[in-house]
Amino acid sequence: MKLTATHYFLRQDLILPCISLIILAFIAASNLQAEELKLPDIGDSAATALTLTEEKMMGAAVIRNIRHAGMLVDDPLLVEYINNLGNKLVSVSNNKDYRFNFFIIDDNSINAFALPGGYIGIHYGLITASRNESELASVLAHEIAHVTQRHHARAYDLGKTYQVPVLAALIAAIVLGSNGNELGQAALASIAGGAAQMRIDFTRANEKEADRLGIKIVNKAGFDAHSMASFFEQMYKESRLYGSQGPEFLRTHPVSQNRMAEAKLRANQMPLKQPPSSEAYHLMKQRIEILNQPDNKVLVEHYAFQLKNKTYTNRNAALYGYAIALLKDKQLNQARNIIQQLRQQAPSRIAYLITEAQIAEQSRQYTKALDLYKSALGDYPGNNPLTLNYIEALLKQQKYSQAKSILEIHLRQPSPAPKLYKLLSLIESKLGNQVATYEALAHYYYHIGQTYQALKQVNLALKTPSLDFYTESRLSARKKELQTEIASLAKKHS
């Protein structure tokens, strides 16, 4: 996909009515001060706030709305990298309750946030702004601590006033439409109204706790404990230089001299670790740069200049970027030579494997491409980027049954990518399985936030002649679930 920062046109379906309400709330509440929304800390409200099950449902629903708005980066390698890094940090945290899901927002601003249920978003602009992997890890660790301490579960406590689908759409609207945390809080407060049990209390104590635990997580995971303070300092300098146009991260995570000093003090008490950034970190920064530049010739010239003048940060990453730029520009022989050089150094690196297979496909060496994917999946079974590319390559060769058998196994993983359901619908259609085609499309539309379209596909499936009892029962149950979700939104907007 092409990364942009201009996908704020939100289509009809579930989120549009909520966006309309958000806009009205912005107009009504834009003059409110943050202090008006700070409620007194009267103890731990987690017991009366969202349950863990509600949190997980909420987070998943927010993601569907963000995806519907076109704001999720869906590049499989980038998604895999941020989840690998995030879960490395989670593995040394005190997490007991959540299966974390990390995602990248298609926005070049510098920001990150946590949602109920273990969902953590990071703008791609923060990845490119980070100077090393430890700084990026420190931001993720801070957000992980917010989740494990259930700060956000309490912050989104609205009692029984809003059902999960409605509140999820509201949160998504604020995440996407707000220019700053205060405005987002004001919008949510206005919509909630006086009848809701409203708790928007991202207190200084919450932030201090997230800093303290985040630094411990970073250090235990083998990263530089000083990276959080260094990132704060970088953002603080930019805010002083650019004023209100400074990093959005500081508007959602206010930084003071005292907070930076405390972060340094905590880091000084821990063993010194200054590991180099991983190769994967450098490669993924290049992928962001590539996906942001639609002009292939400009890309080729950019990397050729970097390599000639040695202006790169990491040579292998620059070569990787150059190989992809050449591939996109159809200079296949030169692209193949570069990627094969890289593979000699790191033959099992998945990013290199995929690029070589894509070059083979472009060169009409289809058997070689399929063999590369199959061999790589033998070493990395279930790997999402490899599996997705392998299935797409099989489809191009009309190997539908083989693609289906691989895809059905891969769909058993937690939180499968919506694109997998779309591929399944294509395969089922090619194989002549009409009901399965409709059902796969229903899953796809639901996971991209188009619930009305999902219901339409279920209805089409139910109208198919000669349904067996079990299929009809399953589809009828799903129809009822979708109708309930749509009704909850319609009721709130009536």
How would you sum up this structure in a few lines?
This protein is mostly helical. It has helices at residues 15-29, 52-68, 76-90, 124-129, 133-148, 151-155, 164-177, 181-192, 204-220, 227-242, 248-252, 257-268, 279-292, 296-309, 315-328, 332-345, 350-362, 366-379, 384-396, 400-410, 418-430, 434-447, 451-462, 469-493, and strands at 101-105, 112-115, 119-123.
Description:
- The chain is mainly α and 494 residues long.
- Among the domains are: 15-268, no CATH class; 415-494, Serine Threonine Protein Phosphatase 5, Tetratricopeptide repeat.
- The chain is 65% helix and 3% strand.
- It contains 24 helices and 3 strands.
- The chain has helices at 15-29, 52-68, 76-90, 124-129, 133-148, 151-155, 164-177, 181-192, 204-220, 227-242, 248-252, 257-268, 279-292, 296-309, 315-328, 332-345, 350-362, 366-379, 384-396, 400-410, 418-430, 434-447, 451-462, 469-493, and strands at residues 101-105, 112-115, 119-123.
- A 3-stranded mixed beta sheet has the order 1-3-2.
- Helix 3 (76-90) packs across helix 5 (133-148), helix 16 packs antiparallel against helix 17 and helix 18 runs antiparallel to helix 19.
- The radius of gyration is 24 Å and the shape is globular.
- The two termini are 37 Å apart.
- Mean pLDDT is 82; it is low at 4-48 and 178-201.
